[in-house]
Every structure is written in structure tokens, then in C-alpha cells.
What does this fold into?
Amino acid sequence: MLEQGIETTTPVGRFLFHVIAAMDEITANLISEGTLEGLESARAPGRVGGRQHLRHIRRNSVSF
It folds into this structure.
């Protein structure tokens, strides 16, 4: 936001600043909403998120 070089001392500059901030906010909200939907759909069949325990990973790993 600060790298845009918007002159915020003028009414047009302040307006543009608010419009860009609103667009960034809606983008962040859409990303968050999509993440929550993805987690919800992953949990539906019983999947629990997170990394597997090390003992489970070692048991299923193949040594070369």
C-alpha cells in the first residue's frame, strides 16, 4: 500500500487510498473464506489436518 506513491493529502488521493484498501480487504476475506471451505471439505470424510506423527512416518518409510 505504501509503495503505491498515492498523494494522501488531497481528497482524490484519500479516496483512492480507501478504494485500494477496500479491495485488499475483500481479497484477504475471500482467501480466508476459501481456506475455511477447503478445511471444512477436508474434514467431512474424517480427515484431521496437520503433520503426521514421526513414528507413523518412520513406520511407512522405505529405506534405500
